[in-house]
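Please produce the structure of this protein holding 3-methyl-2-oxobutanoic acid.
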Amino acid sequence: MNKKTVSTILNMKSAKRKISMLTCYDYAMSKLLSSQDIDVLLIGDSLGVVKLGYENTLPVTVDDIIYHTKAVKRGNSGALIAADMPFMSYEISAADAVGNAARIIKEGGAEAVKIEGGIEIIDKVKAILDAKIPVMGHLGLTPQAINKFGGYKVQAREDAAREKLIADAKALEEAGVFSVVLEAVPESLGKQVSEILAIPVIGIGAGKYCDGQVLVIDDMLGMFTDFTPKFVKKYADLSEIIKNAVKNYADEVRDGKFPAEENVYK
Ligand code: KIV
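Below is the modeled complex.
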């Protein structure tokens, strides 16, 4: 399997090949996902919610991202590895943004960073790009702005917000990002932005016309059950499988059925 790079992902748009991206946070899952030819593994700051049990993504640190990126890197074979810049790792200054992006690349081993926001952070995006670090944008429902949005709500339903999002997307493309994640917007806007931009638009709750799709792995495998957004399709119900397996194990331990003869050293 050829190793995917930022150029591979960029070229997939002109070749009209849809991009598959999944979040990933550990070695074992990385081995499984990359063996199935997933194009991009994202160490998303969603790890704060689905792996660390925080209420939202805001407490996630650069160190958390680096720790999980290292594990994903060790399991990956062919996917491009992109990692999130967590809340407040890029907002304060361009120097901060470059320093934190550099740590995620140098220490974590990511090959690109993803950053939430548009025109208001464009100087930071440019500074990271000037440091030779590929950047993926993220527009629409940007979870780090949860307190500003007042909840996880579909974005850009009104004309003014649509226009603002299109201007943000164009600004990111002009700055030089290699792709944009578009989250929780009407399908018609997902289509419009995908048609306007020459770079790939990777949707999550942005409809079927995007150039690719991304889901949180714990959502699509039915591992995370605290809440499930409408845009999630559950491809498996692992939480039930795990609960049954653990119940069987506990029952067998209590009944003295485990370990059996074949599990014992003679
Ligand atoms: O943090 C994350 O997992 C993300 C994806 C939902 C795109 O940003």
